[in-house]
């Protein structure tokens, strides 16, 4: 225990944004997530790592109830956002998703203009009264997505015409446009080249100042680079959860160590 | 290098091959490919040939329907015959039937021939009068009833020539065939030629074919498509309004909202099967439901439209579901992930992307409906209708007046004895094809429009 303390990074202790307790997920008869407890802090980047098929995406999708769209998927246990159970029957997943934004593995801009891509969320949530308000939101979001300079002259151009990295940053900008409190990212860089990846990683680090970010990644280097907390999943279990520095340098569980050293996965 | 490796591994050394010398395998493969291409080309050729033959035959026989022979003669509207009392009372004028007017026409024509000095040996006055269509008497009668002051005057009228005379100028009737034909004599044809020489008998573009209602068996020269075109338009409007709305709503529900369970599976299978149900079955269904049960009028375009809507629904639903399926799920996720409701996600993002596919399906369904005959026969649209159906009337409601439809008119005309109707039927097919091509052109244009929005 003492060794662990030495390796600990200098992280502020933040308040807990999302708390999961005894979370189980079933796809029909497949038990995909087994009894997961995890606390996700505010203003922190939390990375989910683990071998392919271990349930990282499944768990991530529990956090904004995207799993509701899969008929055969069943979620049990308790997930609280700011102390409120998000699986409470009274909760409308639509409202939840405005608070917990999501960026997907493959960049998926709408086949509309760059402007309309960003403006869509604010429009459906009634966040802008006038066109001028909307313009401001669009510019602010694009700036936060670190893509403003590249697209400011062609806001009317189709979002699908951008390069892969630009598209992904557009999607991030689109997600932050609705002013979420948590940003979920499922392998956001897996379709990007190294330069675009670096840009997105830099962006994630900046987003940390305002949001709680949860990122799924299959790249351990990426987890080490961008996250403060890391959770290691294996076969649906949360094997280990802790400070990123500790997980990578001094894992407690032998399975974590095997994975990090490249023996599983 | 290769040789060395070969001998080391103990394999039989393969002689070095030249790239310039194709080996036996390659040759065989190439010839198989050439054969395959030839088969493909032959298949395409057969298709094109069939199409060309169809077009040549239809246009060959049908183009005549768009021209019609008319003759212009001065008609003396004899007061003694048309208004015995001389008071121009409409009720009395109406008592004179077309038979009376036919007599006036015959007399006027013979007087005119005598005056012009046209004389054909062996042609009686009665036979001379027969070169004018029976329809002409009605034309003149209508003109007189519209303006009774014409009575007593002499007016130039342009009147339809008899169908056989018309056929003579279209090559259907010859001097030889007229010899054997009870309905026309060679002398009548000679008279027609004499009138043509003087420029009194002309072949003109036949607007009446597109506008006039159908005519009885004895006057093919007067038969037109007016009622059929109106009926078809009314039906298409009904289908156009109902089928896409119902079809797209059903598809969206099934594809995006319905839970995937046994019931939706059964519905899905049934819809697919419905697409293969013979159209005449839909006719029986329409007869049972709309006419016998709901008490709607037989022969009404609204009933035809409803039946055709039922018939096109499966086509539209299948095409729409395929189009919705083809929209990448990531677009739905993107919408939902931003906090859009399922309906918003579908309406704002999925539907616009699926629109070109939906449109194609709808137009295919509509084209199918336009050419459909069998179910319409069952609901009585085959009736002989002379009155233009009104789009709306207080007694019969929207699209409720008896009508017929283009394909049914084709069917109807092919049943008739006079060969002139064969030409009319082919002409009607040309009109039908023009409608279809126009609809497809609209579909292509709309598709382009939607697709250009990236
Ligand atoms: N839509 C689904 N239907 C059924 N099984 C699924 C579905 N999505 C994921 N699974 C299963 O759940 C397990 C976890 O998958 P996932 O969360 O995608 O893993 P990861 O993101 O870690 O690679 C896998 O065994 C996978 O087969
Ligand atoms: Mg995954």
Q: What is the name of the CATH class of chain A?
A: Alpha Beta
Strand elements of chain A, count: 10
What's the β-strand tally of chain B? 5
Strand content of chain A: 25-35%
CATH superfamily of chain A: P-loop containing nucleotide triphosphate hydrolases
SS content category of chain A: alpha/beta
Strand order of the largest sheet of chain A: 6-7-8-3-9-10
Q: How much helix, percentage-wise, in residues of chain A?
A: 25-40%
Mean pLDDT across the residues of chain A is 90
| CATH superfamily annotation of the largest domain in chain B | MetI-like
Number of domains in the coordinates of chain A?
Answer: 1
Distance between the termini of chain A: 27 Å
- Rg of chain B, rounded, reads 33 Å
Shape, principal axes of CA atoms of chain A: globular
The secondary-structure element order of chain B is HHEHHHHHEHHHEHHHHHHHHEEHH
Largest sheet of chain A: 6 strands, mixed
What is the CATH architecture descriptor of chain A? 3-Layer(aba) Sandwich
Q: Numbering strands along the chain, what is their spatial order in the largest sheet of chain B?
A: 2-1-3
Biggest interface goes to: A-B, 30 and 22 residues
Domain ABC transmembrane type-1 (chain B): 229-443
Transmembrane segments (chain B): 38-59, 233-254, 274-296, 302-324, 350-371, 425-446
Organism (chain B): Litorivita pollutaquae
Family (chain B): Belongs to the binding-protein-dependent transport system permease family. CysTW subfamily.
